[in-house]
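To close the section, here is one more complete example, presented without commentary so you can practise reading it yourself. The ligand is BES.
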Amino acid sequence: MAAPLDIQFAPLSAPPGETLVVLAGEGLAFGPAARAIDERTKGALTKAARAAGFSGKAKTSIEIFAPTGVETQRIVIAGMGRVTNELERLQLGGYVFAQIVGRKVENASLIAEPADLGEAGPEAFAADLAFGAVLRSYTFKKYQTRKSENGQGDETRDALRTLSVHLSKPDAAAKAYTERKAIAEGVFLARDLVNEPANILGPVEFAERMRHLADAGLTVEVLDEAQLEALKMNALLAVGQGSARPSRVVVMQWNGAKSKRAKPVCFVGKGVCFDTGGISMKPAAGMEDMKGDMGGAACVAGLMLALAMRNAAVNAVGLIGLTENMPSGTAQRPGDIVTSMSGQTIEVLNTDAEGRLVLADVLWYAQDRFKPRLIVDLATLTGAIMVALGKEYAGLFANDDKLAKELDAAGQATGEKVWRMPLAKAYDKLIDSKTADMKNIGGRHGGAITAAQFLQRFIKDTPWAHLDVAGTAMDSTRNEINQSWASGWGVRLLDRLVVDNYERPDK
Ligand code: BES
Ligand code: MN
Ligand code: ZN
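Output:
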């Protein structure tokens, strides 16, 4: 991972960095600190704003060079419009970061006390801005070794090392930031895993990286193929049998609740490190994107890291099924019938519908072993979910209205939005097989739904939600807080789900 942006919180009296950012609300509304700077510079801020026709609208900015009266090379006035909620604060932080980084300075300062804090207290406001800036700062450049034209290495985006966030109570903001930093670490881990090419990150390598999460306080177990065979995870193993690289299942546990015996919340991720489609092979165009077919597993890993790093008061378990779907002489064939861990038999009519085979066994194992209070699975499961929802919303399928509502609320708060899709008997019928208990494809229509129906056949009576993240985990729309191919989608969503609903003892 590239060295993450270093965030410092400093008092308003501290000297500014090479670039100083002040915020302006609508109607060029300055907070007291920005107004003091305007006075010290003999009105340079208001004059420049007037000259530029700048009024503090969101996503606009102006720049004042070599101001007199303040020890900095430039002042950037960043328009914030009206910022009322948390997501808008993150987005503003991302925007501010983009304004600074474009200017190629090593350290910068942000005056984080605007005229209008919206609904937030000053420390939460500053901490959210910092969080947004850090999320925006992520890049994946480890394989770019060529020097850029200025001979400084390919470091233009990374030039900014330190962002000092200035406010009256820097210590309170620093404290508020520690939890956000933990979540950022989780998002970065998820992004790194998804961005990594499949030659570097196969099932074994992915599992090895998970062992390091023990440093954060997680209990990490790696199940190898012999153990998976003993557990009878034949559906998962069938997916990996065409690959030269063995499959793995990783179990990560975090026991942060007061009662170590309280039922855990459970998260399950699809971790197909590369999906060629197997014998039912995918076309060449765009197949490279299938290095990201472990986006669900990456999210679970990032979430577990975030929960541990912020010392969440919850018992949680994350399980990921890691395999590689390859065509070869040992690969499974269309028409093969496998017996899943649950005992149910599956006719594999299309080897490219492999994610559901992996999840079938991991979902079963998760319930069997942990008796969780709920399960959320994440999977880059179907192209069909993108036909239905594009890349803005993930598909949400649930057997439990309460859990669905909680996820919807968490989605709106974090901007990682979900849209509920139907589950119904009539769809379930579409995966009945003539020769086995079920088949792994449902026909031309409603592909995301029949995939979800398939998963539901492996859910007992546990409250369960399935998130089809094929459109959001990778190559999703770039935004103020993510510029990377891998979005790390879902870490903030599920962290929020946990914070808002499963960390309080009375619930
Ligand atoms: N990993 C793919 C789904 C996918 C496609 C994710 C594009 C991200 C981007 C999944 O394993 C798959 O191949 N699904 C098939 C299912 C079909 C064979 C029933 C699909 O969506 O075409
Ligand atoms: Mn596939
Ligand atoms: Zn897949």
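Once you have examined the tokens, check your reading against these statements. The first strand starts at residue 6 and ends at 10. Residues 275, 277, 352, 354 surround manganese (II) ion (ligand 2) (CB under 6 Å).
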